[in-house]
Design goal:
Layout: H1 8-28, H2 33-44, H3 46-54, H4 57-67, E1 72-77, H5 82-96, E2 99-104, E3 122-124, H6 132-144
Parallel strand pairs: 1-2, 1-3
Helix pairs in contact: 1-2
Length: about 150
């Protein structure tokens, strides 16, 4: 049996490179220096944020155990978090060998919602911001169908 390896560091590195390129291009156009500095500061804090996440390994293990028995899963994200949902779905497939699909949260009601049930959990990336309330509405639709929500 093949052992899966999550290559998350490659994804993080690719996003960091793309962000750096976007900052460079943005500064040549209309990106404000203060905004660029803020993004660079946040990027420099990434190693500490990763470390803080790894310190939660007991909780992560507990959540993984809770969802390990499922054979199917949706992963939702909206706007900038749609690609994050796609990457999370890929990791679920690669490491858990389960059926996992990602969708833009706004597209959930156009078909995929029909599959949600107590045996079909949904993982949602929903950071505070412009689309937070809209995504909460999607989460409520999953809850109404008794789908487990992560």
């Amino acid at each position: 049996m093949e052992v899966g390896v999550a290559s998350t560091k490659n994804v993080i590195a690719q996003v960091a490179v793309l962000l750096t390129m976007a900052l460079s291009l943005g500064l040549k156009r209309d990106l404000q220096i203060a905004d660029a500095r803020q993004l660079i500061t946040e990027l420099s804090e990434l190693p500490d944020k990763i470390h803080q996440t790894l310190l939660k390994s007991a909780h992560i293990r507990e959540v993984a155990q809770k969802y390990s028995g499922y054979k199917h899963m949706f992963v939702l994200g909206r706007n900038y978090f749609y690609p994050v949902a796609g990457e999370a779905s890929l990791k679920c497939k690669e490491l858990s060998y389960i059926h996992c699909e990602s969708y833009s949260a706004g597209e959930l009601k156009h078909g995929p919602l029909a599959l949600v049930s107590p045996e079909f959990p949904t993982m949602v990336f929903n950071p505070m911001g412009k689309f937070y309330a809209k995504t909460i509405s999607n989460i409520q639709e999953v809850a109404a169908r008794e789908g487990p929500i992560l």
